[in-house]
Structures are given as C-alpha cells and as structure tokens.
Amino acid sequence: MPEPLFMNPDGWKRPRGYNNAVVLPPGRALFVAGQVGWDAEEELVGDDFVAQFRQALRNVRACVEAAGGRVEHLGRVNLYVTDKQEYAANLRAVGETWREIMGRHFPAMALLEVKGLLEPGAKVEIEATGVIADG
Length: 135
Prior knowledge:
The protein is α+β, with helices and mostly antiparallel strands and 135 residues long. 27% of the residues lie in helices and 28% in strands. It is built from three helices and six strands; from the N terminus they run βββαβααββ. It has helices spanning 49-66, 84-89, 91-102; strands at residues 5-7, 21-23, 28-36, 74-81, 108-113, 124-132. The strands form two sheets. A four-stranded mixed beta sheet has the order 3-6-4-5. The protein is globular.
C-alpha cells in the first residue's frame, strides 16, 4: 500500500504532534467509534488522565488492527477531553504515550473540550478515520 502523504501549507510553521492534512491512498474506509479509557470489561482504568488516554489509544489501535489495518492507515484523529487544562498539564506524557502506541505517525488531529462524555468518569474519548488497502 502506498504511504500516506502529509500536507502542510508552504510558509506555515511546522506542526508538532499532528499534520494539517493527510492524503490516504485508495482502499476501504475505516471509522473507529469514540474510544474511552476502559478495558475489555468496560471498566475505566482509573481516574488518571494519562492512564485513560493510554487505554483509549490502545483501544483505537486494537480496533484498527481488528479491521486488518495499521495505525499508519489513520488519516484523522479527534480527541475529546473534559478539561483542556488537564490535557495541557499532561502534554509531555500524552506525547510519550502517543509515540509508545502509535509510533511517529501523526495524522490530522483536532482537540475538542466537551462538557462531558457518555461514560461517567471518562476524561478523554478518541475517534479515528482512515483507509485500509484492499486485498
């Protein structure tokens, strides 16, 4: 499968930890539902933001792999957090966790602060979109 093309407009400052646009090669569309920081038994891994982020990201990766894909097939990731200050305060650990689970693949991303998430106690939810090569 051809590699994704990462696009950032000329003259713009280079983004850190994401890209402004990603062009994915043809294939089957992949939509990963919002994943929170719970385990296979649907129990939150705790109250810690980074622990929830790590588990939610692992859940996204598990969904991608279950569909026959790799994290490099993701073109967009949306992060929903209940407290953007908590996210910012843990940015270094979030970055380390990202690289641990997703490697150095940085798709287009958005961070949205929300009033709350469906799962009580959840602090982060991650959804993703990508393309998996046919065959």
